[in-house]
Amino acid sequence: MKFRAKYILSAAALVGFNINVIAEELPDRQQALPSMPKQADHLYLESAPLTDIPEGEFGDKVRLGYQLFVNTQLLRDKNVGNDLNCVNCHLNAGNKANASPLWGAYFAYPAYRKKNDKVNSYEERLQGCFTYSMNGKAPESGSKELVALSAYSYWLGMSGLMRQHNVAGPVPELSDSELVKGAKRDDFILPELISSKMDPNALAQLPGRGYPAVPKAELAYSPERGAEVYQAHCQSCHGQDGQGQMIAGIAALPPLWGAQSYNWGAGMHRIGTAADFIYENMPLGKSVQLTPQQAWDVSSYINSQERPQDPRFKGQVSDTQKQYHQHDGYYGKTVADQVLGSASSANFPKK
């Protein structure tokens, strides 16, 4: 069955990463997102309601971070080059357990990342999302955008910990330079009631972090079967052509492939990462409705479609594939008589 002509994909996710400094000599070091296995007795963090964000300068940064997170299109043509918003992959405004919540990520950085072969601060991790998932240009270190997104992430996490451990009072305020570092460091100050029970390593492994791994499927994943899953479970939201839904000029539901979706360098182009996200979180509002086999298959269908070029591309798809794509993905592979990546759309296009 000739695949490309008949298929429509859609995907919704992402994950991207840094960097202005992507060393050309780096080998393929992309790996699946760290996550925590789901357990029935897990107690997930519950952040304070947004109405508890304080007045004043610090609260203003948290509020701006929330606004940029749920409507990242505010940065279109400045830092964003597609129709996605951060919240498309980090559900419930970045607050949903098992949907890569911000509170899980904030306490896990600084951390070493194979993708760029260095220890990344929290703002560097955010920069990567702009470069890959948002197919854009990362805000500069210390910019108001990165400070705001860091402040929102920190506030979600710290307010949740304080509620969980019965710590009264407002969330302690941090300086801009402290906010962008992340919280996995020895000099990060926690209220004593929390630090006496949880060390930095425990905080970096909060239940609900990342996307839990989907169980292995009985059969090897199949884009052909995935097309049928897509039609039955995804098409009504993401469209027959996988381009999502625009309402009054606003991307109400995200495009899953094509020029307005995440690029070939985003973590979501990996079959396993997208399968994890889909199995746990899709269809939107239902969760865990597909079988593991269906999640793997529809992930392969979505990610066997063309999308924006890998920003590390230097002129030859085969070279980029050899250096950065020795994992489960379709970049550089032939689908429907076309090598994926050879007809990719541009990085950071203007709207």
Automatic annotation (TrEMBL):
Secretion signal span: 1-23
Record organism: Shewanella aestuarii
Upper taxonomic lineage: Bacteria, Pseudomonadati, Pseudomonadota, Gammaproteobacteria, Alteromonadales
Top-rank taxon: Bacteria
SUPFAM superfamilies, A to Z: Cytochrome c (SSF46626)
Protein name (database record): C-type cytochrome
Keyword Iron (UniProt): yes
GO-annotated molecular function: electron transfer activity; heme binding; metal ion binding
Cytochrome c domain span: 221-306
